[in-house]
Amino acid sequence: MTVRARSRQVGIAAALVSALLLAVPYALVSGFDAQLAGYYTAGPVGAGGVALFALLSAVVFASVEQGNVDPGTLAGALVVLGAATTLLSALWWLSIEPTTMFGEHRWLEYHAAAVTVTSLPVPVAAGVYARELLG
């Protein structure tokens, strides 16, 4: 398997894991509706924006080899999407205000950091893919 193909797989996996990890509090936390809404909407675009960029990155990674658009153009777009996903994830993480919900669900203190960490391979894989494609 080539580095190019492996970087696509890593990018798709990291983007999907980031998006799925965002949904974990929604599925596991109950009784804190207003605080959970504030948690998800913190930052400039909130968790919804992070999920949108992560899922869009996964779609572009998956479609870059299909031949519908110039692969070089999509490789550049992937680098931007990956960087935006990680940047927005970090901004979301830094914008979250701890609430009483964190007292009962201690793991939420690490959730946003985990989302940011899982999004880090997306721009790295996009950069490797672009280097392999264009270099």
Walk me through what this model shows:
The chain has 135 residues and is mainly α. It has one domain. The chain is built from eight helices and no strands. α1 packs antiparallel against α7 and α5 runs antiparallel to α7. The model has no long low-confidence stretch (mean pLDDT 93).
Q: TL;DR?
A:
It contains 8 helices and no strands.
Tell me the quaternary state.
single chain
Beta-strand residue percentage: under 5%
| Head-to-tail CA distance between termini | 18 Å
For the sheet with most strands, the description reads:
none
Portion in helices: over 70%
Q: What structural class do the secondary elements suggest?
A: mainly alpha
Broad shape? elongated
Kindly provide the radius of gyration, computed on alpha-carbon positions and rounded to a whole number of angstroms: 16 Å
What is the string of helix and strand elements?
A: HHHHHHHH
- In round numbers, the mean pLDDT is 93
Keywords:
79% helix; mainly alpha; DUF7548; 8 helices; membrane; 135 residues
List the helices and strands and how they pair.
Layout: H1 3-22, H2 24-28, H3 33-41, H4 46-63, H5 71-95, H6 101-104, H7 108-119, H8 121-134
Helix pairs in contact: 1-4, 1-7, 1-8, 4-5, 5-7, 5-8
